Amino acid sequence: MLSVQYERRLGKHWSFNNTFFYRKRSQIPLGNEFDQLAKKYSLGLTGVDFEHIFVDQAHLGVIGYSPELRYYFGERKNRWFLGLFGQFEKFDAIIPASMDATYQGQVIEISKVPISFDIRTSSGGILIGKQFMLAKNLYLDVVIIGPHIGTGNKVYALVQEDLLGQLNESDRQNLEASIYQRFDLNRKYYQVTVTEDKAEINAFRKVPYASIRGFGLNLGFYF
User: Fold this and answer.
1) Other CB atoms within 10 A of residue 118 CB
2) Which of 6, 101, 151, 223 is the one with CA 20 to 30 A from 66?
């Protein structure tokens, strides 16, 4: 992921950061590990069952902005910091999933069909890290961890599959019910619609969202 950060000192211990970040849509590093975590914990965190969703084969892109109010501890050049931050993200993803459909009286599996996602989130959290002075005007930010919670303001998923055009109205209604059941979608948040040329999952209200900013390095220059 690429990021650009501008930090403005507000005093001896305080500063304000603006961070812009971007990741081109590509495969997720450590995809197998994330797939296992998603299948184990996702239902409790996101309310969506990932048992038939294959994160290890996903392609994910993101663009976002994060404002941060930071406090530095101590007087030394190499100081720990604690940040209170907000985060606004737009995710562009293609994630394979398997679904059951009824066709000509038989239940068939649509295996690992690519699902396009458009997700936009806003959240806030706490960031822990340490800043090292490498030279007079050069420093290194080491971000250790930053858990944050918020909402998915937009969650939209699209499936375009040739088989959909061969289903009758009853089959499409069965597929809608199957999608709700297979991914354990809460009808309080999500609407599923299946037509002759596409299947859509759309959140019609804000969805609870939780994530973690992991380990990161930022090289900076004072001016």
Assistant:
1) 14
2) 223
